[in-house]
């Protein structure tokens, strides 16, 4: 089933992101937690990341189909431009169509760690918009999502320019956006307004990362260059060594953020689970979705 059809029929939608594990133990853990989350909270869809540098290519596809069979809901396959030329990408898109994967989050991907410069494959796609166009061409029925950055993509240097460039992804065939993590509701509403000024009105699913560990949060946000508001530092820095208190405050922050977003009329909530059932179970329970 196409996720865009779900978003048009149901509001708010609930969805979760998992990452593709590289070990058998990680795979079992993911399957167990995905099953638990699905049974207890009935999400509308889940998504599975494509490892940095395309490192999980076959693993991701195998797990997407396994999760789809097990959960009986759409599973969105993340796909990046990294490491493959257009011919190989077309082969991969055809294989996804063949495997019944109806939903793709089309991304550019990031430079390898340690490098700040994006170097495309010599015969590949330079921007996500080109990958989106390729998917649209090879697999016209596919529902395609793209990444959105409430603070502007870090390389763009200017949120306004980044919003202008989003038009390429929408024109190529992206039907909805999922955002980078953020912690302040006004970043989402500001982004939605900015995109609307550029004529972009597709559904924008906010990506929410529940805070479970202060130091990991700092590392994670430094990596993806998402800002951390002072209020987060003020709450979580003093309790950094207290796991239970961090967990409690992390749930409270995510519930507050999700409620504010729903009040703002977001089309749904997309939680970054990090392959754990908790704390998302507690958050969704508190939201009474
Ligand atoms: C929800 C979400 C899920 C993600 N999942 C994964 C994953 O599974 N695997 C993974 O490796 N990475 C993933 N990422 C990270 C993503 O690959 C990086 O953030 C990457 O740096 C940008 O990807 P993009 O698709 O937005 O790129 P693009 O849309 O190509 O944009 C990249 C940069 O190029 C600029 N740009 C775009 N078009 C043009 C143009 N025509 N001319 C000039 N400049 C242009 C943009 O402004 C931006 O600065 C995810 C990110 C998000 C938000």
Please name the defining characteristics of this protein.
289 residues, alpha/beta, TIM Barrel, eight-stranded parallel barrel, 48% helix, binds flavin-adenine dinucleotide
Write structural notes for this entry:
The protein has a single domain, classed as TIM Barrel, CATH 3.20.20.220. The radius of gyration is 18 Å and the shape is globular. The chain contains eleven helices and eight strands. The chain is an alpha/beta fold. The structure holds flavin-adenine dinucleotide (FAD). Residues 49-50, 52, 78, 80, 105, 107-110, 127-129, 147, 153, 155-156, 162, 165, 168-169, 178, 180, 207 line the site of flavin-adenine dinucleotide.
Question: What's the helix and strand layout?
Answer:
Elements lengths: L2 H7 L3 E6 L5 H18 L3 E4 L8 H15 L3 E6 L5 H13 L4 E5 L20 H11 L4 E6 L10 H14 L3 E6 L3 H13 L6 E5 L5 H11 L5 H7 L6 H21 L4 E5 L7 H8 L2
Parallel strand pairs: 1-2, 1-8, 2-3, 3-4, 4-5, 5-6, 6-7, 7-8
Q: Could you say how many structural domains there are in total?
A: 1
Query: Whole-number average pLDDT?
Result: 96
What's the N-to-C terminus distance?
22 Å
Contiguous low-pLDDT stretches (5 residues minimum) are: none
Instruction: List the bound ligands.
Output: flavin-adenine dinucleotide
CATH architecture field = Alpha-Beta Barrel
Main CATH class = Alpha Beta
Q: Provide the helix percentage.
A: 40-55%
Radius of gyration: 18 Å
Q: What's the CATH topology label?
A: TIM Barrel
Tell me the structural class: alpha/beta
